[in-house]
Amino acid sequence: MTINGVTSSLLALYILFLSLSLLTRVALSAPTQDDHLFRNHWKSPNTTDRLSRSRRLESLIGNTGGASIRRPTETYKTIDSDGGMKISMSRSLIASNATLTSATEGNALIAFRNSIQTDPTGALANWTVENIPSYCSIWTGVSCNPTGKVIRIHLPELELNGTITPMIGDLVHLEFLNLSLNNFWGPIPSELVTCQNLSGLDLSMNSLNGELPELFSLPKLEKLWLAFNNISGPLPEFTRCESLVSLYMDSTNISGAIPSSLRNCQNLVYLNLYNTNNLNGSIPVSLGELHQLVDLYLGYNKLTGHIPGELGLLKNLTFLHLGSNNLEGSIPPSLGNCSSLKAVLLGGNNLSGIIPEEFGNMTALIALDLGANYLNGTIPASLGNLSKLQYLELAVNNLTGSIPQELGGCLSLKHFSLAFNNLAGGIPKFLGNFSSLVNLIMVNNSFIDNAVAISILSQCPKLETLMLDSNKLYGSLQPDFFTKFPSLKYFSVSYNMLTGGIPSSFSSRVPSSLVLMDFSQNKFTGGLPVQVDSTYLPSLRFLLFSDNKLEGSIPSWIGSLKSLQILDLSRNRLTGPIPQDFRNLSGFKIQPDADQSEDSSIVQAGAFYLRTLDLSGSSLNVSFDFGMYKAATTMDLSSNALQGGLPQEIADLVGIKYLNLSNNNFEGEIWSDIQNLKALETLDLSRNNLSGRIPSTISSSVNQYNVSFNNLDGPIPSGGQFDTFTDISIYLPGNPRLCGAIIHRPCDKVPDTQTFHISDFISIPGFGIGVAGGFCTVLVTILVWAPARLFVFRPAGKRKEPSAYGLFKFRFY
């Protein structure tokens, strides 16, 4: 090799060495994420993996289990001291597109983290600036694809509180976003429409508000779950929804009509617009074109018009809920063609006409609710074909006839309600074959049968609710009646014609599960059971024996019923004092919380009992729960012959709301500390022999008050709640020594002796007007009516029977 050649080779090697050195220096000094991009971040210690708690709503997507995808790296060579070539650099540092994407997504995730105001469980403690290079691997709920793009954020049920940042739209590769069961508020960011790969979005059970953005324009969207939020405004037109499979927007505030363009969602399987309370207009006929539809929930809205017969074309339909709307017209028989239906809930509308015979073709049916409509006609015998039926609600209609014997084929029935119809006939014997029966409600019909027929129901070992009130049942309950119903909770035979005594089994074998017992408005005789071990009745809250012919004293065991909140023994023939054991009525001592309100999930089904229906699980096994209203604590002992003084024990029941002791023979004074009854709203002590003065203070909650027909004296208190009592009849008649401006009786002119004035009992001016009016009526009749005039003025010997006038012929003897 020549000198020039060697020189050239060395120069080339030297240039190569400088180039490699320069390249290495540039690469190693590449810019990193600057802290100023992530100001206001939270620096919390890393948290360990947490076990997921049970959820009320099924998650839109499965948990990734914390799996992460790491970026692959490549090895490059450089010169070391041994003459070898070795260089190691991350591919993300030399791929500019990946670097920019990583920075954008990192910014978006940190912005999401900063928009959360509280994180009580510390779920996002590892979302820190220091961990940005590892967000795909260690950040809670974040999953990436093999190229390092964020495709999934899964953060349900973590009690997160805050808003959803608009920068969420920078995650352009996002496929699934689940933030359900948290406390997010504010609007749903419209920037989500830039996430064109979004397939599943679950924001349900938060407090999000505002109108719905154009999410239906996302071409790959399959699952959209926004239930239990405050989203308002109308539903948009469904122009691009070919991929949509499930839409859950129940319990929101959306309004307006259901767009007929839903027909474009040909792959829609689950449609839930239940309980928005604002949807109006008619049900689109075009829903009949959604042949993949399995669940259709439109209940609890303000929908009007008829039920489209085209819904009968939905062969895959399993669940149809149109209840609690304003739908009218007849039920389309074509629904009977939907042989896959397991639940049909049409109750709470204005539907009329008959129950279609075709319903007997829905042999997969488990629940049928047609209650609270205006249906007439008879119960179709074809319903007996529904061998899987567990829930049959026909209450509050105008159904007539008897219960068809064919219904004996519904051997799976658990809930059977026929209340408030015009049904007649006897209690069918086939009811005894319903071994799974839990609730039987036949209230307010015209069923006529002997009380012995009720015993057939003893073959239903699971029976909890037996409501037979307001019928025409007669005869006596068998002595061992209560031994036959070991699971009984709610029992009522009120407003019938039952006679005889209270069954003797009440004293020893009454079911401990009892909550309500109602024997009122019958003809029961004898006394109340004397010896009852009240410890076996820990749950009894309602005990009613009113309007019978019961005699004797009030047994002391009633005072040991710890849960009792309503006691009605009125209009009987009971004597003796109120037992001192009434001081132990703990249920009357619970003062109501002003912040408490009735549970909105409970629906009234009668005077005392309530029902909710829960259809859950893939097999749609029916479960339901009978609850009770928060009892308005009531004690009514009126219209008996009870004696003695007003026991102090009653004044100690500080939670009592309604107290009626009227029309008895109570003596003595009214409790001086009656103002301690803070919950009291109604107090009736009228028609007794009470004396002394009216206590000067009373609870401000009292709005009905009556002490008339007693022997009270002294001035009527004024001020406070007494100034709201302006009706004189709550003090008079009676109480001759009572005085005060309200009764126009000055206290300085009250007589010392008990002298009664006619003005205490009648109105003198009114009596005079009545006498004068009556005299004038008789006089005019004599003058203008010939038969009357002849009768009065013709001599007695010449009187004869007058001719007949109109439909009546008068005879005088």
Annotation keywords:
8-stranded mixed β-sheet, alpha/beta, disordered N terminus, single chain, repeat, 6 helices, 813 residues, disordered C terminus, transmembrane helix, 23-stranded mixed β-sheet
Give an overview of the whole structure.
The chain crosses the membrane at residues 767-792. This is Leucine-rich repeat-containing N-terminal plant-type domain-containing protein. It is a single-pass membrane protein. The protein is 10% helix and 23% strand. It contains six helices and 52 strands. The chain has a 23-stranded mixed sheet. It has an eight-stranded mixed sheet with strand order 3-6-8-10-12-14-16-18. An eight-stranded parallel sheet has the order 36-38-40-45-47-49-51-52, with no helix packed on it. Helix 5 (764-784) crosses helix 6. The termini are far apart.
